Amino acid sequence: MNQARIAVLVSGGGTNLEALLNAQEAGNIPHGEIVVVLSSSAGAYALERAKNHGVPGFAVPRKGHSQAEFESGLTERLTEYRVDIIVLAGFLSILSEDFVRRWPDRILNVHPSLIPAFCGKGYYGLKVHEEALRRGVKVTGATVHLVNEIPDGGRILLQKAVEVLPGDTPETLQRRVMEQAEWTLLPQAVELAAQGLTSAGT
Question: Which of 7, 32, 79, 147 could bond 194 through an S-S bridge, CB–CB 3.0 to 4.6 Å?
């Protein structure tokens, strides 16, 4: 295998996707190639970002479909594009244990906290930063981890700490965590995973 084939799963604006695409174009993911972007929402701006970078993007809507139908749609596209690695980049739909088991050590997720802090059910997006401020922590950050059947479980690949500043709002903290941690960590972790696959020859 020369390069691992990567799918990025998104649900919204796609800022983490943009960071990955920019890193790829800068040559910072030499062992991988983003070959497809899949969105759980047809109106996600992330699909426009994919188009702007010349990467195929498709909506696989979660709304109005059963879990089995939704995951069947994902699997169809992942198989079509012969995907090796799945990156959850702001992907808000829950994946079943059966789906995760079909991709052992191949699904990466970025979470906007230093796991095990502020993770698990109900902790996503701005809610994570709201809770960090409510608890009065001085340091937060982001984590990229491999997904297993346990929510927010799996092996941690990379973490980066970010200082919480006086006067922070959930929005300003969210932006700093993205800029200082998520957008740096995610390309690094994807390259690590891709390098591991290609060196193993799988």
Answer: 32
